[in-house]
Each structure stands twice: as structure tokens, then as C-alpha cells.
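Example 479.
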Amino acid sequence: MSADRERAVVDRVPTCTFAGGTTFAVEDPSTGEVLCEVGDATAQDAVAALDAAHEHQAEWAATAPRVRGEILRRAFELMNERAADLALLMTLEMGKPVAESKAEVTYAAEFFRWFAEEAVRIAGRWSTNPSGDGRLLTMRQPVGPCLLITPWNFPMAMGTRKIGPAIAAGCTMIVKPAQLTPLSMLMLADILREAGLPDGVLNVVPTSKAGDVTGPLFADPRLRKVSFTGSTPVGKKLMEQASQHLLRVSMELGGNAPFLVFADADLDAAVDQAVVAKMRNMGESCVAANRFHVHESVADEFAARLAERMAAMKVGRGTEDGVDVGPLISADQRDIVRGLVDDAVSKGAKVLTGGEDVGDRGYFYAPTVLANVPPDAELLRTEIFGPVAPVATFADDDEAVRTANDSEFGLVAYVFTRDLKRALSVAEALEVGMLGLNRGMVSNPAAPFGGVKESGFGREGGVEGIDEYLAVKYVAVDL
Ligand code: NAD
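Predicted structure in complex with nicotinamide-adenine-dinucleotide:
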């Protein structure tokens, strides 16, 4: 990829200017170099964004659903037309290989196509009271101005999963992208403007002071909803703030996905899908397989084959051809990952491959497989967010389920077995919001994405996704 092309893609980002004129730097995690400066919103800028969202709410809610849907459809098309540039930009600010960024742009755009189709299907109901003497009417209306807060790991898709249904439902919004990766969101906002989204409906506030900037919004009764994707500790803090005015809340939080391989599993498929579930996004995903629990009769073979596959992956700058694994997002994130590996090794885990930093520029860490991981290793309990696969064993189905459920998180699990009865009874018993049955990827715009326990609540995507942005009103009718 030529440096000129990279520069041209970055230069096209509308980087925002706010009244105060201050900026913050966005870095390329593969080099540590600054890509560009972005306008740094203050609390006053955020309140101005809420002023705009509030001012335009009634008019936007009254805009025909077909018009709202067609704006989303046009944005879907523009994203696909520009996928190559959007993918390069995403790789530059976030690090993942360009092919993965391209897949994210496609996935992100699909939320716009899906919700373009949902915009015209917001129905209520009409029924006769059980006693027969009256009628019951329900209508579903936009909840009102929303605050949408997104993380750095999927800079575009975590936005479109919220923006798509908000637009379809007729809500205005303030979007606060992650400080580390605001560029993809700024390009997305520009595409929506080009697709015909009226001014004031979507207001992006990039900032280096997240808490200070969003705090006044939670205190303002004009805000009606917050949808947050990020870590569980920050989610808990925002829940407290949301209680001031009892906001509608959606929380997509952290995970600790167990990947269960039973003795009867197709081991080829399990290894293939383990690579997908672990290594997509360099492991920096809430649905990344975090811990591999494998039946003791096949654990050694599974770990050895997984290590062989992971050792063959090419680590490097995501813009280079043939790279499978980019850098981690920051030096801090790499320190966390390294610390978790060192802890497991000090407690007896065996390194089959990796276990070390790569290169002396950027934040690269080698794809790592650990075998014989003891139950007290910290990385079995903590979201790793890196390319590290710890393999532990179980003796029977009860132990597999008990160990998988022994976590405060409950986002997703992966189960590999050829026995239908076992598959369905394990699926029923696992405390998760999503489950991959003989597959390592669950994300799908047509499906309800979300968790239970401390992974949060609310669903994004599917027919359920738009409900997060609608309030039900019931009218008792006397005929
Ligand atoms: P994070 O919680 O640090 O930050 C997420 C967002 O919240 C960012 O925009 C950040 O600037 C903002 N933020 C941080 N502190 C804030 C505060 N006090 N007030 C308001 N906003 C604040 O998370 P992250 O490191 O960006 O993302 C990684 C986490 O996100 C992981 O735990 C991952 O599992 C989770 N995640 C969950 C899902 C899901 O759908 N469940 C998807 C992707 C990521």
C-alpha cells in the first residue's frame, strides 16, 4: 500500500472543528505515529449537539418511514462503493488487516440495509378486550434523542448497529466514538449526510475527555436514551448516571466466551473455527473465544493443531499483503495481554507457540497457544482482548457446562459436538445471550446480538434491534 494512498485516505476525513479549537491526535498502532488531529469536543459542544438533536427530534420523527429507510439504503450503497478506502482508513487507525477491515465495512453496511427494511415495518396492534366491551390499541414511537457510545475495536460496525435502528425508528442522536478510532465514524457521518440525512439528526462528538463530555448529557432531561458498547466497568458507571432521569438503556458489554470441544466433535472443524473465533480482530473482540475447554481425550491433539495454525499466521502491518495479524490497539493493551500470559505460565501453563512481543515498532504480540492452563490462571476469568488461546480440559458434560458458566459474563459460547442431544441440552444450560453451534462466528445483522449477566442487556440487529429505540404507547378505546 503506498504512503500516498494512505495519506490521501486520511486527508479526506472531515476531522471536525469545535469552538474551542483544541484537537487530539489519532495514532497508527502499527507504528505509533500520529495519523492526524481531530477536533476535541468539550462539554459545551456536547450540549450543543443535544440542542440540535432535541430541536430536530419532532420533525425527524414525523419524516416518512420510507424516506428514513431510503436514506439508510443509500448509505449502505455508498459504504459498499467506497469499501476499499473505508477499509484502509480503518486499518490505519485500528490496526486490523485490510481484508478484515473490508469485512467489517461490509458487515457494518448490512445493518443499514437491514434497518432500511425495518423502518417501514414499525407496527402496532389493535385487538378486542377479553371482555368484548372495548378495544386495545398500541403504537410504537421513537424514544427521542439518544446518546450512542462506541468502542475502538469495531470502529464502524459498533456504530451502524446503533445508528441504523435509531434512524429507522425516527430518533435523533449524539454519537461519541472511541478516542482511539474516531476517523471511521467521522467518515460514516459524512456518508450519511451525503445519503440525505438532515442536519441535526446525527451529531458526532469526538473527544479525549469522555466522562466530562457525556456527564452533562446524562444530567439533561432532554436526553431519553443511552446505548453503550464497551467495557463492563464503564457500563456500570453509565447505568448510575442514567438513573438520574431514568433513561432507556442498552448495554453491550464485555465477554469471556468459552469454546467447548467435546470428545465427539469434528476436530478439523473445531480447529478451523477456533482460529476464526480467536483470531478475528487479533482477539480484540467481545465475542472472541477467550478460553478453550476441551475434553481431556482430545485436548492435546486440539492444542497441538491449533498451535500449528496460529504459529503459521503472519504478523505485520495490516496494510501489507498476506498479513493475518495486526498490532494490538495500544502499548497498554499489549502490557495487559503479556501480563496475563506471564501469570498463566508462572502457574504452570505451557507455551506451545508465541508468548512474546513481535518487532520493535508498534504494539505487536505473537499468536499464542497455552496448554495445560490451570484453573487459577487469571486469563480464564478475564477478557484477554489479544491473540492468546488458553486450553484447559474437562472430564464430562457437567464439568464443561459448570466451568463455562463460572463467569460473571454471559455474552457468547461456542460448542463443538456431533451429538444433537448433547448440543441442544448444553445450549439450554449455558448462561449466554448467543451460542455458536459448530461454528466460530455468530455476528449477523439479521440476528439479535447481546448478552446476559454482566455482559449487559438489550439486543442489536434482528427484528429485536429496533425495539431498543421505540416506546410502546397503549390506548384504551371505548367504542
Ligand atoms: P471502554 O469501556 O473503555 O470504552 C468504550 C467507550 O466508552 C469509548 O467510546 C470510551 O471513550 C467511552 N468511555 C469511557 N469511559 C467513559 C465515561 N466515564 N463516560 C462516558 N464514556 C466513556 O471500552 P473499549 O476499551 O473501548 O472497548 C473494549 C470493551 O468493549 C471490551 O470490554 C469489549 O468486550 C467491549 N465490547 C462489547 C461489545 C458487545 O457488543 N457486547 C462489542 C464490542 C466491544
